[in-house]
């Protein structure tokens, strides 16, 4: 099991522990805002399981039915997580409406607040780790999980402050209002996860700075060629697919053209980890006088 999969498995363990702590805080205080926070933690556990399964599938090598590999499985995990987050937001809204229509006094023992604070601290540390590792390993599943957990941390801190204010001021409906705000924040978080994941599934191009790096590598390491055009990129999980047409002199041998392609592929893979490069060689009659000029 690689480090990415171990992190995903760790998310399941952390998620279950945080879920238990948050429900304990709710049972002690009776706060609907804390209850809404605990409901979201159920989604965290389900999402962590989905991420672990997706990472396991994405790690499988290419086969006859999937010649480009299985890396896009991570996007499905992030989409599932986003949908579950939206469902959680709707459930929280329902609870918030009921609490606002029928407010009830809050019990506010220090133990309950401390338990909730401990759960938020644990979530915050783990979310920071996941977000960092997700960026380093270019894992959509880990990145989505980290972003979701960090949004959960922000929500939890707001809920804690609000519950204290509701108890101190005696305005019990403030608890329900906070639960509603939690739902809106969760809904926004879910929309962000779905949007980012759909971009990956739709083969969105690599970021502009990555494309610029690719063009610079081609320009400086394609000595012997004349031009590169129709440079296209797409992401599939941690893999960046790069495709372009390389124009070479008409009298160049196949071996010489192949050597240039090998050199370019090696340099691009050195610049971009997990790059998959496809180069179409064309004779100089196909030159378009646009795209990437070879220095």
Strand content: 5-15%
* Portion of residues within helices: 55-70%
CATH topology of the largest domain: Alpha-lytic protease prodomain-like
CATH superfamily of the largest domain: Cation efflux protein transmembrane domain
Largest sheet: 4 strands, mixed
Q: What's the average pLDDT?
A: 80
Radius of gyration: 25 Å
C-alpha geometry: elongated
Which segments are poorly predicted (pLDDT under 50) over 5 or more consecutive residues? none
- The number of distinct β-strands equals 4
Structural class by SSE content: alpha+beta
Name of the CATH first level of the largest domain: Mainly Alpha
User: What is the CATH architecture annotation of the largest domain?
Assistant: Up-down Bundle
What's the number of helices?
A: 8
Beginning-to-end CA distance, first to last residue: 44 Å
Number of domains: 2
Helix and strand run: HHHHHHHEEHEE
Write out the strand line-up for the largest beta sheet, numbering strands in chain order. Answer: 3-2-1-4
Family: Belongs to the cation diffusion facilitator (CDF) transporter (TC 2.A.4) family.
Protein name: Cation diffusion facilitator family transporter
Domain Cation efflux protein cytoplasmic: 207-284
Pfam families: Cation_efflux, ZT_dimer
């Amino acid at each position: 099991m690689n480090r990415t999969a171990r992190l995903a498995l760790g998310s399941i363990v952390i998620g279950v522990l945080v879920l238990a702590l948050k429900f304990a805080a709710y049972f002690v205080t009776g706060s609907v805002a804390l209850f809404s926070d605990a409901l979201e933690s159920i989604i965290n556990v389900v999402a962590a399981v989905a991420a672990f399964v997706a990472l396991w599938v994405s790690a499988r090598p290419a086969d006859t039915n999937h010649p480009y590999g299985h890396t896009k499985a991570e996007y499905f995990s992030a989409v599932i997580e986003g949908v579950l987050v939206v469902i959680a937001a709707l459930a929280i809204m329902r609870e918030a409406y009921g609490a606002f229509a029928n407010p009830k006094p809050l019990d506010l023992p220090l133990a309950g607040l401390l338990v909730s604070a401990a759960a938020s601290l644990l979530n915050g540390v783990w979310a920071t780790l996941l977000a960092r590792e997700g960026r380093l390993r270019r894992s959509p599943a880990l990145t989505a999980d980290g972003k979701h957990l960090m949004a959960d941390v922000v929500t939890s801190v707001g809920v804690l402050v609000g519950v204290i204010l509701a108890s101190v001021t005696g305005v019990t409906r403030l608890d329900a209002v906070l639960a509603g705000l939690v739902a809106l924040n969760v809904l926004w978080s879910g929309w962000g996860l779905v949007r980012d994941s759909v971009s990956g599934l739709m083969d969105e191009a690599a970021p502009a700075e990555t494309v610029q790096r690719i063009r610079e590598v081609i320009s400086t390491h394609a000595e012997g060629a004349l031009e590169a055009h129709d440079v296209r990129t797409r992401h599939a999980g941690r893999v960046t697919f790069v495709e372009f047409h390389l124009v070479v002199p008409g009298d160049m041998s196949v071996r010489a053209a192949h050597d240039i392609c090998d050199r370019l592929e090696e340099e691009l893979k050195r610049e971009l980890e997990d790059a998959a490069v496809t180069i179409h060689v064309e004779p100089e009659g196909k030159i378009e006088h646009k795209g990437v000029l070879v220095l």
